[in-house]
TrEMBL record, chain A:
The chain crosses the membrane at residues 20-43, 63-85, 106-132, 138-162, 174-193, 251-269. Residues 20-272 form the ABC transmembrane type-2 domain. Belongs to the ABC-2 integral membrane protein family. Pfam families: ABC2_membrane. It is found in: Cell membrane; Membrane. The lineage of its organism: Bacteria, Bacillati, Bacillota, Bacilli, Bacillales. It comes from Alkalicoccus urumqiensis. It comes from the Bacteria. GO terms for molecular function: ABC-type transporter activity. This is Transport permease protein.
UniProtKB/TrEMBL annotation, chain B:
It holds the Pfam family ABC_tran. PANTHER family: LINEARMYCIN RESISTANCE ATP-BINDING PROTEIN LNRL. One of its GO terms (molecular function) is ATP hydrolysis activity. This is ABC transporter ATP-binding protein. The keyword Translocase applies. It is a peripheral membrane protein. It comes from the Bacteria. The keyword ATP-binding applies.
């Protein structure tokens, strides 16, 4: 336990110390919020609204904000896991590996560290809520926190798994391009996933991020106050190949996905560093 | 007393190279054991295998009574390691680096502060404890690594080229620290270096070349094995001088190297006057010395360590 704590604590210490990284990591979500939330929201709203016959009630910024928080969780979790490659390159991993901490504790500590850092980043984004004129309830924000951590843990597992298979920073960057970007764009984070071509719909439904994003939207957005048309326009009535899914099922799915990835990542890290 | 490290038939083969070739040796409790050899001799590979960081191709290693292949956790608790390359977290302060190490090695909470103070004192870094490591000089980083290696009171401290890349003054200082430590804690030290003068502080040295241990003994015994002293002289015509010395002292071993005539004799006091009298060729310089480990290396491998390092 002490070992897990030490590994976790180091990642947090470094996160708060590295001001450049701390602020740098907000440029992307803020840029997205500006472009999608500010610049494009009118276009998006009239497009989405009229398409579904939802009329006025479609608030795009309200729709996209949880998606951008989810995107931040995804990026931060995965990039934080990259730190094990960095630790190798800068030699520190040797100090960790030659110590009596078990390989399992190292992997778990790293994943918890990445997930914590990602969750904190997400929480910091909440500060923008009043600036954007949004009004999610405090209760819903508190409710979404544990889920954010769970979701981040799953993604940190994915990151650690990739990092222990790839081992080079360049390789990791490439994986991020071909995996992370599509995972964001094909998840419903930035625009509703209605009326997709069939092949794309399959990818969207196979993408775990889709369900993470959906849960966050369902918790944060006051769904009941929206007309059924707007709910539809926002893509909140998600069905998987014809079968509607409930939020509980989605949460269970993400929990299972997290457990699987944490196991795989731990196993793979142990194998790579016998 | 049981040896603290016991290595039998240790071998490591990479695809084409045999980095370590069937070596055996023991290290006694409390001794400074020097591991010498040119670049690529297999020193780091051997250390990494003893420290459980690398799986041997074959052979067995026992350390502090534990089997390095089967009881890795126990071995890791018993050792401290100063790696050849820097393994500090430079974004953190000295103190934070040490604190993490205490956690990694489960140093009891109540003892951490005292231990950190103690090791920082040994390496004279007390006033720098809250400074970030990336502001440290190379020598300070090295000292901090040594301090860190000691935090958990290891039974054996491994130092893989602890002074590489440091200026001579810092190197001398560092050795002072290491010796101070040895006196204070009576830890066993296993060190590698290719500066032969540094190896002189070892109680015993093993000379490694191309994956094999070619000699192992106390520095004095190794030098004695060479027998006698070395007279180095240069003259206006080294070849002529050589013939003259050979005629006068047939039992002397003579080599010519870099314009220097190196004459090995059993006892320089006895032979130096004979040699000088026998020379008609004018002598330009003369130096009489006891053999060094460099001469030992030369005798065992036919090369000087610096030459061996170049191929
Ligand atoms: N991972 C590896 N793959 C292939 N060959 C290796 C590997 N690691 C080391 N070697 C080879 O094994 C031999 C011994 O290397 P080692 O690092 O143990 O030498 P060393 O004595 O520590 O040298 P130095 O003084 O340069 O540190 C070298 O020929 C090296 O090229
Ligand atoms: Mg080496």
């Amino acid at each position: 336990m002490e070992g897990i704590y030490a590994i976790w604590q180091r990642d947090l210490l470094k996160f708060f110390r590295d001001k450049a990284r701390l602020f740098g990591s907000f440029t992307m979500p803020i840029l997205f919020l500006l472009i999608f939330g500010g610049g494009l929201s009118g276009t998006m709203e009239s497009m989405m609204g009229s398409m579904a016959g939802a009329g006025e009630g479609f608030n795009y910024v309200e729709f996209v904000f949880p998606g951008i928080v989810a995107m931040t969780l995804l990026m931060t979790s995965i990039f934080s896991s990259l730190s094990i490659i960095e630790d190798k390159d800068f030699g520190y991993m040797k100090e960790i590996l030659v110590s009596p901490i078990s390989r399992v504790s190292i992997a778990v500590g790293k994943m918890l560290g990445a997930a914590t850092v990602a969750t904190i980043q997400g929480i910091i984004l909440f500060l923008l809520i009043p600036l954007l004129g949004l009004s999610y309830s405090i209760v819903s924000l508190l409710q979404v926190l544990p889920f954010m951590f769970l979701f981040a843990a799953a993604l940190s597992g994915l990151g650690l798994l990739i990092a222990s298979l790839i081992r080079s920073t360049q390789g990791f960057q490439m994986i991020v391009q071909v995996l992370v970007m599509p995972m964001i764009f094909l998840s419903g984070a930035l625009f509703p996933i209605n009326n997709m071509p069939a092949w794309m719909d399959i990818i969207v439904k196979l993408n775990p991020v889709t369900y993470g994003v959906d849960v966050m939207k369902k918790i944060m957005i006051d769904v009941d106050s929206l007309s059924p048309q707007v709910q539809n326009a926002m893509g909140l009535n998600l069905d998987v190949f014809g079968r509607p899914v409930t939020m509980i099922e989605e949460i269970l799915f993400i929990a299972g996905f997290a457990a699987l990835l944490v196991l795989l990542a731990t196993f793979s890290f142990r194998r790579a560093n016998a | 007393m049981e040896p603290i490290i016991s290595v039998r038939g240790l071998t490591k083969t990479y695809k084409q190279t045999t980095a370590v070739n069937n070596i055996d040796f023991d290290v006694d409790q409390g001794e400074i054991f020097g591991f010498l050899g040119p670049n690529g001799a297999g020193k780091s590979t051997t250390i990494n295998m003893i420290c459980t960081m690398l799986a041997p191709t074959s052979g067995s290693i026992t350390i502090n009574g534990w089997n390095a292949a089967k009881q890795r956790g126990k071995v890791r608790e018993s050792i401290g390691l100063i790696f050849q390359e820097n393994t500090l977290d430079e974004k953190l302060t000295a103190r934070e680096n040490l604190m993490l190490h205490c956690r990694f090695y489960r140093v009891p909470k109540s003892r951490r502060a005292a231990r950190i103070r103690e090791v920082l004192e040994i390496v004279d870094l007390t006033d720098k404890e809250n400074q970030r490591v990336d502001t440290f000089s190379g020598g300070m980083k090295r000292r901090l690594e040594i301090a860190r290696g000691l935090l958990h009171y290891p039974k054996v401290l491994f130092l893989d080229e602890p002074t590489v890349g440091l200026d001579p003054q810092t190197r001398a200082h560092l050795w002072e620290y290491i010796l101070r430590l040895k006196k204070k804690e009576n830890i066993t030290m296993f060190l590698t270096t290719h500066y032969l003068d540094e190896a002189e502080i070892s109680d015993r040295v093993a000379i490694m070349d191309q994956g094999e241990i070619i000699a192992i003994d106390t520095p004095d015994a190794l030098k004695r094995q060479l027998g006698g002293d070395i007279i180095e002289l240069s003259s206006t015509d080294n070849e002529a001088a050589r013939r003259e010395v050979e005629a006068a002292v047939p039992e002397a071993e003579i080599t010519v190297d870099d314009g220097i005539l190196r004459i090995k004799v059993a006892d320089s006091d006895k032979f130096v006057s004979t040699i000088l009298k026998s020379l008609d060729t004018p002598v330009t310089s003369l130096n009489i010395r006891r053999p060094t480990l460099n001469d030992v290396f030369l005798a065992f491998t036919g090369r000087k360590i610096s030459e061996a390092a170049e191929d």
